[in-house]
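Human: I would love a firmer grasp of how sequence relates to backbone shape in proteins. Take your time, and here it is.
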Amino acid sequence: MEAIPHISAPPQQSFDIEQAGSAWEQHQVSRRISTDDPERRLVISGPAGTTHSVGQDPWWAVGFHLVAAVNTAFILGYPALILAYLGWTTGLIFIVGGAALSFYNNCLLGSLHEINGVRHIRYRDLAETVYGPFMSKLTWFIQYSNISIANVGLIILGGQSLKAISGITGMHLAPWIFIAGTAYLCFATVVPNLSALRHFSAFSLALSFTYTMVAVIISIKDGLQAAPRNYSLPGTTTNQAFNAIGALATIAFAFNTGILPEMQATIKSPTSKNINKALWLQFTVGSVPFILLTIVGYWAYGNMAFPYLLINLSGPKWAITLANVTALLQALVVFHIYATPMYEFLDTSLAQKMFPAVKEQTNNYSFQKIASRFLLRGIFIGVSTFLGALLPFFGDFIALTGSMAAFTLQGGLIHHMIIKVRGTRNLGPFRLAWHWANVVVNIIVTFATVAAAIHYLVHDASMYHAFADI
C-alpha cells in the first residue's frame, strides 16, 4: 500500500492561504478560529465557521461512529444483495478487494483533511480549496443526495422493524414508516451534533452485535436443518448483469460512509494519525460482523435470502423480536450519523439567518435552539419519511446510495485530489498512472452502477403501487 503521510500542498501549487489570488480562494480560506478545542486554537475551513463542535473527540469516538455507520441493519440485506447476485467465489473476492481498496481510499481522504494548516471540516470545503466553487457545489449535491437516500432507506428499515415487532397483520407498512420518522425527529431534536452522539454510537455497537448474532445463530440452525440450497445466479443473463453491477454498488456502500471529512472534523489533532486509527478499527473489528452475517446468511438460504434477512429466520419468535427491536434502535442512532452534514448545514447556514435569537445562544439545549432543530430537521425528516412511505424499496435504496456516492466521493474524486494537491512531478510516473487509473475506473463503474440501481427502482415502481405494503 502506498505510504500516506500528512499532505501539504507543494510550493508550485496555488493553495498557499496567504497568497490566494482569486476571489473564491480568498473567500474560501478566510480563517475562522474555533476555540472549542481546549488544547489549541483551530483554523477551520469555510467563511461562516460552524455551530458544531470541532477537534474535541478522541479517535475511538470517531471509530465508534464509523463502525456503527457500516453495521446498520442494512447488513441484513447483504446475503441477498451481494452474494446471491455474485455467487460464492466472485462475491468473496469482491468483498475482500472492496474492503482493502476502501480502506486505502479513506486513508488518502483522511490525509487531505488539513492543507496548509487549515482543517477542512466539510467535504465541499475541501473540494473548493482544491478545485474552486463549482466542484464545491457539485460535491455538496452528490454528498447530500447520498445522505438523503441513505436516510430514506433507514426510515424504511425502521418501519419494517416496527411492523415486524407489532405482529399486526392488517396494518400496511406506510403508517409504520411514519411512526418511525416521528421517532427519528424526536431524537434529532434533543441530540445537537455528532460529538453529542458518541455515547449513543457506543451503545449502538451493542445493538448491532445483538441483531447480528441472532441472525447468524438462527441462520446456522436453519442451514443445518434445511434441504440443499440453490446457489445459482437468479434471472436472465441481462438481469444477472444488472444484479452483479448492483452488488458492486452495495459493496461500495458497505465499507464507506461518504461523510468522512465531517466525522474527522470532530477528532483531536493530529488528525491524520487519529483518523487512521479510527479507520483501522472500522476495517478490522468493525467489518467482521457484517462479513460473517453475509457469508452465513447466504450459506443458510442461498439465492432465496430476503433483502431483510430476519424474514428468513425460523424462530424462536422472541429472538426475532429482539433482533427487530435492536435493529430499530440502532437505525435510530445511525440515521443521525449520516444526517450530520445536513444538520450542520441547517444549524449553521439556515437557523442563524431564520431565527436571530439562535445566534446569541451558546447553550445547545436552549429553547430557541431546540425549537429551530425541531422545525428545520423536521422538514428534512418529514420529506425523507414521505419518500420512504411512497417508495419502500429497501434494497434498491442501498444500491442507489452506494452507486451515487461511494465510487465518486470515496473513490475517483479522492485520487484526483491527490494528483492536484501533490502535483504530477511529486508523484512520479507509476503512482500518477495508478491514481489516474482509479479515476477512470471509478467514473465507468459509477455510471454503470447508477444505471443498474435506477433500473431496479423503475422496475419495482412499475410492479408496486405508491405506498405499497412490502
